[in-house]
From TrEMBL:
Record pathway: Cofactor biosynthesis; FMN biosynthesis; FMN from riboflavin (ATP route): step 1/1
Class of this enzyme: transferase
Domain Riboflavin kinase as annotated: residue spans: 2-128
Protein name as annotated: riboflavin kinase
Enzyme Commission no: 2.7.1.26
Amino acid sequence: RAPVVYGFGRGSKKMGVPTANLDPDVLEEELGSMRKGVYFGYARLPADEKHAAWTKCVVNVGSRPTFADGDGVTVETHALRDYGRDFYGEDMEVVVVGYLRPEMKFDGMAALVNRIMTDIGLARNALDDPGHRRRADD
């Protein structure tokens, strides 16, 4: 659980894949045991009655090697639903239930977006498993 902070503005504006960037400082302990890469799980906005239910998500934990415009690790969460609004400053909860792949550097934006779409499809299929949903509910 961490507040949503501003990122680089690429996700929704340039790539068509909006992300909620979670404050990595708040998640320092959790990030210490995670390898850089792409994960899947469930996310929710617990303080928002309309969006408090768990929804499938893909989470990138890494340093964005395709772009050379930032230091440190980011936690970018792409919820597989449209919230219909921004929620900067609100807390988002994420339950990671699986790992898709390690962090990779791509030869450009198009290759990165293609792989993100593949990751989303893989995550969606994996999260159809009822066992994963039970882990989030627990």
